């Protein structure tokens, strides 16, 4: 991890851990670049038309080739298929999970959770599994939404069945909630604007907390994940990103954040727009 990033408990109430600037940085500074984020795969709508490794549309006159075994995922080249097999984790899921299910495709969030569990032995060996399990899961908040909770329980059963994990059912539900909470959308710049094409799970990016006046942004180039500053960041300042459309009104933002992440934003922008001084907004 770059010395510009320091993980520790967040300064934002109820936010858990966060990332802080280890030194003063200027606008446009690249704080991290991950060419191989832990998990990056196509979403349900794009699995048939983008390369499952680079997550890009094929070049003109280039035809995507299906995996010969599962016939579900596609690639723009043989080298990219090899990379997804050896580094992406497709070899752990192809023959035992995807092939028997073909042509059915598991939901993207389930595919993320299964791949993570299949990669668990490798991550434990490398000492990186703790980075996954320390992330928040918000099980109790999910449980208080009966309609959503029903779907989570159903998806968690699929995760347990297809991953053949030794975790008990309750632990799998908690793990799946952790995936839902911390997975971010991979966007591609297509006309007329950015479009979500996949899902990414990477503990470093997941540790960034929200602000309606964020200090940095996370952008994608295919599967590559980059975090860069939007303004000058002081040494010791917490690094934040925007979880939602920041062009919404303060009421709309707060409603959306409470619905999706169960918190009321207390950032300086919200306080100013709500006509509040310092202190917790209610």
From TrEMBL:
<keyword id="KW-0862">Zinc</keyword>
<dbReference type="InterPro" id="IPR001214">
    <property type="entry name" value="SET_dom"/>
</dbReference>
<dbReference type="Pfam" id="PF01753">
    <property type="entry name" value="zf-MYND"/>
</dbReference>
<dbReference type="Pfam" id="PF00856">
    <property type="entry name" value="SET"/>
</dbReference>
<feature type="domain" description="MYND-type">
    <location>
        <begin position="51"/>
        <end position="94"/>
    </location>
</feature>
<dbReference type="InterPro" id="IPR002893">
    <property type="entry name" value="Znf_MYND"/>
</dbReference>
<feature type="domain" description="SET">
    <location>
        <begin position="137"/>
        <end position="244"/>
    </location>
</feature>
<protein>
    <submittedName>
        <fullName>SET domain-containing protein</fullName>
    </submittedName>
</protein>
<dbReference type="InterPro" id="IPR050869">
    <property type="entry name" value="H3K4_H4K5_MeTrfase"/>
</dbReference>
<keyword id="KW-0863">Zinc-finger</keyword>
<keyword id="KW-0479">Metal-binding</keyword>
<dbReference type="GO" id="GO:0005634">
    <property type="term" value="C:nucleus"/>
</dbReference>
<dbReference type="GO" id="GO:0008270">
    <property type="term" value="F:zinc ion binding"/>
</dbReference>
<dbReference type="InterPro" id="IPR046341">
    <property type="entry name" value="SET_dom_sf"/>
</dbReference>
């Amino acid at each position: 991890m770059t010395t510009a990033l320091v993980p520790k408990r967040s300064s934002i109430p109820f936010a858990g851990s966060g990332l802080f600037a280890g030194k003063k940085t200027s606008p446009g500074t690249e704080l991290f670049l991950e060419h191989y984020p832990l998990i990056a795969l196509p979403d349900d709508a794009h699995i048939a038309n983008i390369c499952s490794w680079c997550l890009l549309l094929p070049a003109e006159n280039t035809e995507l080739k299906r995996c010969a075994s599962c016939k579900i995922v596609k690639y723009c080249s043989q080298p990219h298929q090899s990379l997804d097999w050896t580094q992406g984790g497709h070899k752990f899921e192809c023959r035992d999970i995807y092939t028997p299910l073909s042509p059915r495709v598991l939901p993207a969030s389930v595919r993320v959770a299964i791949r993570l569990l299949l990669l668990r032995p490798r991550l434990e060996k490398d000492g990186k599994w703790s980075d996954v399990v320390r992330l928040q899961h918000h099980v109790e908040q999910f449980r208080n939404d009966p309609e959503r909770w029903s779907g989570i329980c159903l998806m968690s059963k699929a995760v347990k069945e297809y991953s053949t994990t030794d975790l008990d059912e309750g632990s799998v539900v908690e793990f799946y909630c952790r995936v839902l909470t911390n997975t971010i959308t991979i966007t591609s710049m297509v006309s007329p604007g950015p479009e979500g094409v996949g899902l990414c799970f990477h503990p470093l990016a997941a540790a960034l907390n929200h602000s309606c006046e964020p200090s940095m942004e996370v952008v994608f180039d295919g599967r590559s994940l980059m975090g860069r500053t939007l303004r000058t960041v002081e040494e010791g300042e917490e690094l934040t990103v925007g979880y939602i459309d920041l062009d919404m009104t303060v009421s709309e933002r707060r409603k959306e954040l409470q619905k999706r992440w169960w918190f009321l934003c207390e950032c300086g922008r919200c306080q100013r727009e709500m006509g509040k001084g310092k202190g917790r907004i209610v």
